[in-house]
């Protein structure tokens, strides 16, 4: 039994070694899929299940996968990045609509500070940039679109953790800005000095550019309201004032968001100087600052025009109210004069209705009747003449 048991153990060891070698070859085969086949299998940004996207300078395309495990299975070097933070070339891992479990997992893998993890997990809305040893954390609030939210302050922030050789970003509700940045990298990759700071700059730049449609919409509303001041009916002035109040509130919200962006950009430029970033990124940041200042100036001008339009509408409303009040007073005055003219008729009728001899009782003609009627009409005419001379009519 001894020699037989030893033979069995030897065969089992060789079988395990053979299966391990086969599995390793299959894994290497899966990890060395040519980029076109990888793109064909996973490059589907419109897929409802795609949540993880990975860009690296070692590949010509972006990898998309529904989970981190699937992404690691497609691209083998990702194991070394997740295990030890080592990767050849620049990388960018973007997570869309990450769950709390995904956030905690990535925080452990990349050794992220608990404060950063908490900000991402609770969806911190304050815009800021913070330096944590090997990385800095950027939190930016993107502009809202009219079809998505009712207020630009309800949109979820875009979070980016920028390392020296890579970027880890988190987006919620919309991947629009990260998709734009990836497309920009694809178009200018041949002549672009790509760094992690540049990716962070590109995210900030795309978020700032997202405010342009909102500002154009505001300026269009301002133009419409200014042109409609002289032709707006009195019944529609209330609706026009409501639109002005709504637009002014939107202007204030956009200005607040842009002011927050100014502080973040200033802090980012200071961190770039400390970390020794390229001069190209610093010059790009100055361009963003100029763009933000231009947008703030346009919003301030729109705010002034809205204020003038509001004053014009209020002035027209006051004028219409005064005119209507004068018309009501004039109508009541005429009614008062007419009632005053009718009062003598009631007095005369009341006098002849008392216990006196009825006029014309013993007369066969109607002269008495016409005499009384003529006296009443003469009294009414005299009252009207007096009212006309005294300008009551």
UniProtKB/TrEMBL annotation:
GO biological process: intracellular magnesium ion homeostasis
Location of the protein in the cell: Membrane
Pfam families: CorA
Membrane topology qualifier: Multi-pass membrane protein
Keywords: Membrane, Transmembrane, Transmembrane helix
GO-annotated cellular components: plasma membrane
Predominant location: membrane
UniProt key word Transmembrane: yes
Transmembrane segments: 332-354, 366-387
GO molecular-function terms, A-Z: magnesium ion transmembrane transporter activity
InterPro entries: Alr1-like, CorA_cytoplasmic_dom, CorA_TM1_TM2, MgTranspt_CorA/ZnTranspt_ZntB
Similarity annotation: Belongs to the CorA metal ion transporter (MIT) (TC 1.A.35) family.
Protein name: CorA family metal ion transporter, putative
Organism of this sequence: Aspergillus clavatus (strain ATCC 1007 / CBS 513.65 / DSM 816 / NCTC 3887 / NRRL 1 / QM 1276 / 107)
Taxon lineage: Eukaryota, Fungi, Dikarya, Ascomycota, Pezizomycotina
């Amino acid at each position: 039994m001894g020699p037989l048991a030893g033979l069995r153990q030897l065969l089992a060891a060789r079988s395990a070694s053979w299966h391990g070698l086969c599995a390793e070859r299959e894994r290497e085969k899966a990890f060395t899929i040519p980029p076109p086949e990888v793109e064909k299998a996973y490059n589907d940004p419109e897929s409802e299940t795609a949540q993880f996207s990975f860009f690296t300078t070692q590949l010509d395309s972006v990898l998309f996968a529904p989970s981190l495990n699937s992404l690691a299975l497609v691209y083998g070097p990702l194991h070394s990045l997740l295990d030890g933070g080592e990767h050849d070339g620049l990388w960018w891992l973007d997570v869309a609509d990450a769950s709390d479990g995904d956030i905690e997992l990535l925080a452990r893998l990349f050794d992220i500070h608990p404060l950063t993890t908490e900000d991402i997990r609770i969806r911190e809305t304050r815009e800021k940039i913070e330096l944590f040893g090997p990385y800095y954390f950027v939190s930016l609030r993107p502009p809202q679109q009219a079809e998505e939210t009712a207020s630009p302050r309800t949109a979820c922030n875009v979070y980016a953790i920028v390392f020296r050789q890579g970027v880890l970003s988190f987006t919620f509700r919309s991947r629009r800005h990260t998709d734009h940045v990836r497309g920009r990298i694809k178009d200018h990759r041949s002549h672009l000095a790509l760094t992690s700071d540049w990716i962070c700059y590109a995210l900030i730049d795309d978020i700032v550019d997202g405010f342009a449609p909102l500002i154009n919409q505001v300026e269009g509303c301002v133009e419409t309201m200014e042109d409609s001041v002289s032709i707006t009916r009195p019944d529609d002035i209330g609706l026009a004032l409501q639109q002005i109040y709504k637009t002014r509130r939107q202007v204030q919200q956009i200005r607040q968001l842009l002011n927050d962006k100014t502080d973040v950009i200033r802090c980012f430029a200071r961190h770039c100087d400390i970390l020794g970033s390229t001069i190209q990124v610093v010059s790009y940041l100055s361009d963003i600052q100029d763009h933000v200042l231009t947008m703030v100036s346009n919003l301030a001008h729109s705010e002034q025009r809205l204020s003038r339009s509001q004053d014009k509408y209020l002035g027209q409303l006051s004028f219409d109210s005064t005119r209507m009040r004068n018309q009501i007073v004039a109508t009541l005055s005429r009614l008062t004069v007419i009632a005053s003219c009718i009062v003598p008729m009631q007095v005369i009728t009341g006098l002849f209705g008392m216990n006196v001899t009825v006029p014309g009782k013993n007369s066969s003609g109607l002269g008495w009747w016409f005499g009384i009627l003529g006296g009443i009409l003469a009294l009414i005419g005299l009252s009207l003449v007096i009212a006309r001379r005294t300008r009551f009519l």
